[in-house]
Design a protein that fits this description.
This protein has helices spanning 2-23, 27-36, 40-54, 68-72, 82-88, 95-119, 122-125, 132-154, 183-200, 223-237, 240-253, 286-295, 309-314, 323-327, 347-350, 370-381, 386-399, 412-423, 429-436, 462-466, and strands at residues 76-77, 165-168, 180-182, 277-282, 304-305, 328-331, 338-341, 364-369, 440-441, 448-449. It is mainly alpha-helical. The chain has one domain (2-466): Serine Threonine Protein Phosphatase 5, Tetratricopeptide repeat, CATH 1.25.40.390.
Length: 469
Amino acid sequence: MKKIIYILMSVVLLTTTSCEGFLNITPDGQAKRDELLSTRQGIEDALYGVYSQMRSQSLYGQELYFSTLEILSQTMWCNGSTGVTAMSEYDWAHSSVKGVFDGAWTAMYKNLSNVNSVLNAPLVKEATAYPFTVYRGEALGLRAFMHFDLVRLFAEQYTLNPAADGIPYATEFSLNTPDFESLAKNYEHILADLHEAELLLADEDSHEGDGNYMLDRQIHFNLRAVQATLARVYLTMGNKESAAHYALQVINDGKYTLKEKTEVVNDLAGVLSKKETIFGIYHAGFYANVNAKLQQMTSYFSLDLRGDFMSLYEKDAAGSDYRTMAYFSESGTGSGTKYRLSKFTDIYELNNNAANRPADLILGINMIRIPEMYYIAAEALLDSDYDRALELYNAVRMHRGLEQLTDKPLTVELINDERYKEMIGEGQTYFNMKRQNLPILSHDGKTTYQPSSGIYEIPIPDAEKENRN
């Protein structure tokens, strides 16, 4: 508990005593910002502030996790909500839809500016030894991670058109976004940041537990988070060899492992998985967002699961899939009975029993988990090493209570099915569909949206374009 309290104190320090200097670029603000980032403590506080901003509702605290991205994949919907309906119909011109993406764009670039403030501080920019190498490695990894999600949202799929226009890649502390660049240049910058971060964080294990900042490395963009993100990026670029290399590196490292099937229930319920979470964001207030949007049944507001979601869990379900018990609950009675996505609902908060939550559980958002690395490696190896791909695919199935696949050949479609079942609600399905240029079946099963209909063409916010005229 002491380490969590320390994090809270650090965030409070940033937001109450240094936020003006950190975000204000007037001469006076510049001086305060430089003073803040001239000490080890100040740099740590600033990085905690970056993590804090990532959990905002405009970003991973809601929209880029269980809400907007899950609506776009047709996993979640809301009867009667005009905004959600417009989002589910890919009506990019609708004011509510534009507002969500404007908010995500603005919040992300603001936080990227915060990251760059840390990276450009002399102690970090010129880092050659611990702990400043760790600070720089984390910050570079975060910069690449956030840019990658912006690219996946607002640019074309790389494998379809690598010569397409990209987004601005921010490398300076500024309230204005830099010039746009090509998609190929975006990926060049993302990979460069990640590979440098990998080198800088190579010895982080030897410093684990050295002071409060080196505790709970799951809530920092650690070495395995960098390698896992490299696996995501390379798969998105169509480089299967490199994707498999980094996914297997994380798997074989053994730092994070698949939990047993009996550990599935409540493992992600408002907390970071002890065994599986490679990177997560500490968020004590996550329950409030999740409860209102997913657990409750508020008309025109709460999000419902697509009507046929359970059929996917029943498909090829030889064995007992423990995820059906862990991820979903029934609410209501009779004809009003509905399933709720309770995967992220903190059971201690739900039962007014937070005081009895085990102290070693970290409240927060699971951003990258080890099962994803198994799916990436399985897909990447499917054509070159089928037996290994099947072994990886079956490993997750067995740890979820299912029997091994033996009666049919492993295909990308089967990997997609398992990936969907495992990662439902975690904001990755839409990106996976876009990467493969897949059609998307509507939540009610009545409409199939084709890639050619613009479902993957989220426009750059109007305000961004207007500010450049």
